[in-house]
Predict the 3D structure of the following.
Amino acid sequence: MTSIVLYCRPGFEKECGAEIQEKAAWNEIYGYLELTKKEGVVFFHLQNSDDGTKLIEILPLKRLIFARQWFLTLTDKIELPSFNRVETIVEALGTQWQYTDLRMETPDTNDGKELSKFCRKLAVPLRQQLRKHKILTPKGDDFGANLHALFLSGQEVILGYSLGTNSSPHVMGIHRLKFPSESPSRSTLKLDEAFLYFIPKEEREARLSSGMRAVDLGSAPGGWTYQLVRRGMMVSAVDNGPMAESLMETGQVKHYQMDGFKFLPSKQNVHWLVCDMIEKPQRVAKLMAQWLIHGHCKEAMFNLKLPMKGRYQQVTNDLQTMKDIFADHQVKYEIYAKHLYYDREEVTVHARLLSPLPLIK
Ligand SMILES: C[S@@+](CC[C@H](N)C(=O)[O-])C[C@H]1O[C@@H](n2cnc3c(N)ncnc32)[C@H](O)[C@@H]1O
């Protein structure tokens, strides 16, 4: 059976499954789901095996909110013997296809963490053998296919591949970042990851540059503001709560103790609006769209906090609300949402307008 395997945050398997099923159906591709709660892995078993290659080509991973990474299976579960594991894997692959990278993966659970030590050890001889048989090609081609080996235990593996052009460059789609000790809160990693994920490397200098003005709604104690300050921006930080002294001392931050829904910049010179307010996601989505439509900011990066139930439906509705507002104002826009590694019960959204703003009275 051919399946798409998707990785998500443990606890979000239902959302990840509902999303792939819906977005595959838009492309007339159907299948059924197999998922185990809290394992962070979803299997989408395809009704028609030939649809797998089509789906991983036409559906951008970037368009999936809850999947961090995915691959298309090449094999069913393979039972591994206690000896000759490497040979068994090499044999199962055959020599018909070549891959540019090998990803050793496990479910994102405590057992999976233990298993990853075993995977690290096995990776060395496996890579050597794959190179010897020319199944793994020399490094350097980012556009080739990645070979995925998902270990369910030391005795069970599933093999598959993803396209270099439509997959995450990180193992299991997880971009681990170092917590900067000067930041006043761990939330800082969310905005750092969001900038790295949503803004392409070659555009970061222009779109995240020193001297830009930014507004941070729901800023206290200042983890997100810290990310803006460290990039040289001047920040209006809006929150009734106190901001870290260390940030105020930089001279780059002005603190407004007021409601984030009432704050407006005095000039149209703000590039970034960021928002981490714990508020109803519909309210936040509307506010973000209004800022963009009125030209109060050029780009917005914000979190939508999710309720416990109906989380996929909730995000879809919130994004639709924003798209409707943009459509009403006849502007072209770009909007992407992702459940990032450092996000918890929330997703991060990036939005900006692509066409000039019509005049709004
Ligand atoms: C998750 S915390 C923000 C953490 C911050 N991003 C950081 O990295 O340090 C949410 C903040 O939103 C603020 N908040 C909630 N509703 C707000 C509102 N209507 N206006 C302004 N701030 C609000 C809270 O006071 C709280 O400090």
In short: Residues 188-353 form a domain with the Rossmann fold fold (CATH 3.40.50.150). DSSP finds ten helices and 15 strands in the chain.
